[in-house]
Design goal:
- The protein is about 30% helix and about 20% strand.
- With about 200 residues, the protein is of the alpha/beta class.
- The model has no long low-confidence stretch (mean pLDDT about 90).
- Keywords: Hydrolase, Magnesium, Metal-binding, Nucleotide metabolism, Nucleotide-binding.
- Its EC number is 3.6.1.66.
Length: about 200
């Protein structure tokens, strides 16, 4: 594998993956680097795996190149795994972090701390023309706070306490967060796969 397209326009994600793949001599390009515009791929899957595969396989087919895509979100046990694959648009299609957090906290009103367990999930899919798509899943276990705390991060970070920490994700520096995040854990597994490859 000499080059790989990362199916994102998020510069932060691209930087993370570039760092990982550079030691293998793999050239990384993102959707920002491609000359033609890629229409948004509708996430119609019912799992993180299905949504990541939809993105990776659609773009791999179009360019005949290997493509890495991810799908991620928050699963809350007391809500039977919601918001799950709908994490980004939990409170509606406008994709408002604040509205999503407000809805989550409203649904957990009165739920005791020991029942507020949750995890961030990240699934990476690597699609290669003519080969079976591979998946790597990373999680970060924790629990949901009763109110938002912290100014860093985005999404549900202000209400998520990682296990064994006394700070929410939004109180951590980006370096601290990157050491324990669901994406980091998925990337570690991808790294193992690349070594074998």
């Amino acid at each position: 594998m000499e080059q790989l397209i990362i199916a994102t326009k998020n510069k932060g994600k691209v930087k993370d993956f570039r760092n990982l793949f550079s030691k293998y001599g793999i050239t990384i390009r993102s959707l920002l680097d491609l000359d033609e515009s890629i229409p948004d791929i509708e996430e119609t899957g019912e799992t993180f795996e299905e949504n990541a595969a939809l993105k990776a396989e659609t773009i791999a087919e179009r360019f005949s190149l290997p493509v890495l895509a991810d799908d991620s979100g928050l699963e809350v046990d007391a809500l039977e795994g919601r918001p799950g694959i709908f994490s980004a648009r939990y409170a509606g299609l406008e994709k408002s972090d604040q509205a999503n957090v407000d809805k989550l906290l409203e649904e957990l009103k009165g739920v005791p701390k020991e029942e507020r367990t949750a995890r961030f999930v990240c699934v990476l899919a690597v699609a290669r023309p003519g080969k079976t798509t591979i998946f790597k899943r990373g999680t970060c276990e924790g629990w949901i706070a009763e109110r938002p705390i912290g100014e860093n991060g985005f999404g549900y970070d202000p209400v998520f306490y990682p296990n064994r920490l006394t700070k929410t994700m939004a109180e951590l520096t980006s370096e601290e967060k990157n050491q324990i995040s669901h994406r980091k854990n998925a990337i570690v597994q991808l790294d193992e796969w690349l070594k074998d490859l």
